[in-house]
Specification:
The structure is a homodimer. Helices cover 40% and strands 21% of the residues of chain A. The first copy, chain A, is an alpha/beta fold. Chain B binds a DNA duplex through residues 159-161, 193-194, 196-197, 199-203, 206, 220, 222-223.
Chain lengths: 232, 232
DNA sequence: TCATAATGTCACAATACTTTCATATTATCG
DNA sequence: CGATAATATGAAAGTATTGTGACATTATGA
């Protein structure tokens, strides 16, 4: 989250604009990957999934719309957020951009501020942990920026790992995550840590939530993993 | 989803525009709920979550931006898509709208076509990510991702095997499966488990379904096996 | 550097679940 | 209607999964 900055793939053929994008993106603390055509873009994507793709509408050979369509067709890349860059402003284009599966679009010339606002907005809804918003669930309140947690207004003392687990849970409620999924999401991809370790940290998290009665938000789903839910 | 049309909550104080929105929305086959201020909106939301919220920027007392912020902060409402309706077009407004967590915005006066295209786009990208792999049969609802089962809305408590059996049944209704076929499909191929074991789990499944009266969905076909069917 | 906190791992306890088995109940057919 | 086979049911034994406390190891900060 704050340890590894979100990676943004820029697909843009004009070097000047590509440079401008990269500068702004990195200015905001994101990692920028450059690609000047569809081939380069897919080459990168096949190796690692970016957290977001900035896609130029007009590209040599394969267009941005076509790239977006292909990304949406593949299960692996289906959920990667896409922001479309376009010079046209008329209504049909907007609609096409949205219909093609882009999460948002922005028209050239764009202001850096607007670009960044859109990037943050898209990241916030697609990768909730990435946005540093204060999140709430039931009686719990967690603020990533101040790194504080409170239950019913009373401050809680959590270790770093418990904090990250709770943050992940609050931003991904109602869904069961296996131990290995939690390891991937909270610890980082493919760590060499035993799965039972998750149990222990879940236990510590529950222990910290116990005084406020919020410990039942963290639910065991036998044979499947854990689920965070405000409702029993 | 296709059985019950998506519900769209309209938060708009001007009656004329509210009516216009409702007309268009219902024209598209959605269900429109009207609210003319923040109180009415939250009153509805506290009872049931809409599939999407159309939110006017300018509202009496509590603004649309403020409403969006509150919705995004709470885990329960965090994932409800929001489209912001605004009369202003200048950049700062756009940014505020996005920062507040809106999924999209549209400026007044809007064309019905654009409005509908945006609604569809937002619904398309938001719904599939949340567990809409939920399967239904009669009064039953089962969601693999949240690992929850409910009958007539009331949550059910099932063991792992019963959960898998019910999942298999709901996705393979109206057909008789022998005990060994069930063992293959639910337990896994060629397990060394006695066939009578199936009976026991069927019994437990029925037992769990009994309070809701759904136990007769699981039917015995003497000499052949079991069949799942909503109709007696 | 030392003191302190955080982390991961293990062993064992506590549960929840599965399977089997013995027995009761029900259906089917002569 | 009775004999027989198939299914239902309850409970006990067996198995797997999860909870928990203690401890060694590794970061972190004064």
């Amino acid at each position: 989250m704050s340890a590894t900055p979100p990676t943004i793939l820029l697909v843009e053929d004009e070097p000047a604009i590509q440079e401008l994008l990269a500068f702004n993106v990195e200015q905001c603390g994101y990692r920028a990957i450059r690609a000047s055509d569809a081939n380069a873009a897919f080459a990168y994507i096949s190796r690692a999934l970016p957290d977001l793709i900035l896609l130029d509408w007009m590209l040599p050979s394969v267009s941005g719309v076509e790239i977006a369509r292909r990304l949406r067709a593949d299960a692996r890349t289906r959920n990667v957020p896409i922001i479309m860059l376009t010079a046209r402003t008329d209504e049909r284009d907007k609609i096409l951009g949205l219909e093609s599966g882009a999460d948002d679009y922005i028209t050239k010339p764009f202001s850096p501020r607007e670009l960044m606002a859109r990037i943050r907005a898209v990241l916030r809804r697609r990768v909730p942990q990435m946005a540093d918003d204060t999140v709430r669930a039931g009686a719990l309140e967690l603020s990533p920026t101040t790194h504080r947690v409170s239950a019913k207004g009373a401050p809680l003392d959590l270790g770093p790992t418990e904090f990250r687990i709770l943050h992940f849970f609050i931003t991904h409620p109602e869904r069961v995550y296996s131990r290995s999924q939690l390891l991937d999401h909270v610890w980082g991809n493919h760590v060499f840590v035993g799965e039972r370790t998750v149990d222990v940290h879940i236990r510590r998290l529950r222990h910290a939530l116990e005084p406020s009665g919020c410990d039942n938000y963290v639910q065991t789903v036998r044979g499947a993993g854990y689920r965070f839910s405000v409702t029993a």
